[in-house]
UniProtKB/TrEMBL annotation:
Its main location: cytoplasm. It is found in: Cytoplasm. CDD domains: ACT_CM-PDT, PBP2_PDT_1. It catalyses: chorismate = prephenate; prephenate + H(+) = 3-phenylpyruvate + CO2 + H2O. GO terms for cellular component: cytoplasm. Keywords: Amino-acid biosynthesis, Aromatic amino acid biosynthesis, Cytoplasm, Isomerase, Lyase, Multifunctional enzyme, Phenylalanine biosynthesis. The keyword Methyltransferase does not apply. This is Bifunctional chorismate mutase/prephenate dehydratase. The keyword Membrane does not apply. InterPro entries: ACT-like_dom_sf (IPR045865), ACT_dom (IPR002912), Chor_mutase/pphenate_deHydtase (IPR008242), Chorismate_II_sf (IPR036263), CM_dom_sf (IPR036979), CM_II_prokaryot (IPR002701), G/b/e-P-prot_chorismate_mutase (IPR010957), Preph_deHydtase (IPR001086).
Length: 366
């Protein structure tokens, strides 16, 4: 680009847009042929292929690394490609995805980030209902929060996995930036702050430093907090920026989370097995045999360490079967089809009374 003439530059942009549009249309036509190819292989194929999407997105990031300095950050490019894939997938078969509502929650943002706007997303009221929607085929996939980097695990989700046969088909990481929202945008007259209990906890220090006298009230979701703040004066909500738009609230203060890297991890629930990508995670539910004997947990975890597997998370929950017995949720880097994972699981059988594979899936992508 040599000239700085505005008209000329806009003409160049128009030409590029035309080419992009032609290419996107061509890509969509090929995706339609892919659907026919899938039908030729199976009567009821899976159209959504998380392993293929991960592969495409990683290549977008890899190509972007080659632009030095980068013109656009990865986080600007990947959503564009996700939307293109989402539009192509909706031509093959529109997906129905249930998430923990109401609209305006971070779960909705995570669902939109992962599935794009081509999917039909359905808010439901509880985490249990997300599981049920998928179990009963009212939705093909579901999105539930699993853990937050500041506040830890989401117990309802872990408990649902104990009794469900659904598989984790993917993970989504969503950076969480909380905003203080109110009708007036004035911080001085606030007497009450509503939010979900997790969000209040994630902003604890900010609240005690800046609003020590206000009454913090936990409600069922951040969207519900925003709805109330839109109706009550002298009241604020802690919620995401999308809730501000949805409920016509002013941003009193943005980014009030205590840890700037505050991130929530969500699981994509489904019914199908996801092939290996080479950059996967696996989740298991484990219970130790002779759990009250010394070294029971050590024996449960040793096979993973002996096989060089990196555990990315371990969490315990009461087994709900015997008093003071626990089940362990573990996540590790690797796929159930990796040799190291297979060997570790073989070794585990003598030390575990329960080994339940909750899924292997591609690692979250920016
Ligand atoms: O490769 C496929 O299996 C496709 O259906 C194509 C495509 C895409 O648009 O690239 C669409 C949906 C799948 O989830 C993955 C990829």
């Amino acid at each position: 680009m040599t000239t700085l003439n505005l008209e000329e530059l806009r003409k160049q942009i128009d030409n590029i847009d035309e080419k992009i549009q032609t290419l996107i249309t061509q890509r969509a036509e090929i995706a339609q042929s892919v659907a026919r190819a899938k039908y030729a292989q199976e009567a009821q194929p899976n159209f959504y292929r998380p392993e293929r999407e991960a592969d495409i997105l990683l290549r977008v990031i890899e190509r972007n690394q080659k632009n030095q300095p980068k013109v656009l950050p990865d986080e600007s490019l990947t959503p564009i490609f996700r939307e293109i894939i989402s539009a192509c997938l909706s031509l093959q078969k529109p997906l129905k995805v249930a998430y923990l509502g109401p609209q305006g929650t971070y779960s909705q943002a995570a669902t939109a980030k992962h599935f794009g706007h081509g999917a039909h997303t359905v808010p439901v009221q509880t985490i249990e209902e997300v599981f049920r929607e998928v179990e009963t085929d009212r939705a093909q996939y579901g999105v539930v929060p699993v853990e937050n980097s500041t506040e830890g695990g989401v117990n309802q989700t872990l408990d649902c996995f104990m009794s469900s046969d659904l598989k984790i088909c993917g993970e989504i990481e969503l950076p969480i930036h909380h905003c203080l929202l109110s009708q007036s945008g004035d911080i001085t007259r606030l007497v009450r702050v509503y939010s979900h209990q997790q969000s209040l906890a994630q902003c604890r220090s900010w609240l005690s430093g800046h609003l020590p006298a206000v009454n913090c009230i936990a409600v069922s979701s951040n969207a519900e907090a925003a709805r109330r703040a839109a109706e009550e004066p002298d009241t604020a909500a802690i919620a995401g920026i999308t809730a501000a738009e949805r409920y016509h609230l002013q941003v009193v203060k943005a980014n009030i989370e205590d840890y700037p890297q505050n991130t929530t991890r969500f699981a994509v629930l489904g019914k199908h097995f996801v092939p290996r990508t080479g950059r996967d995670k696996s989740s298991f539910l484990l219970s130790a045999a002779q759990s009250n004997h010394s070294g029971a947990l050590l024996r449960l975890l040793k096979p993973f360490s002996d096989n060089g597997l990196n555990l990315t998370r371990i969490e315990s929950r009461p087994s709900r079967q015997n008093l003071w017995e626990y089940v362990f949720f573990i996540d590790l880097d690797g796929h159930i089809e990796d040799e190291a994972v297979k060997t570790a699981l073989d070794l585990l059988t003598t030390h575990a009374s329960l080994v339940k594979h909750l899924g292997s899936y591609p690692r979250a992508i920016a």
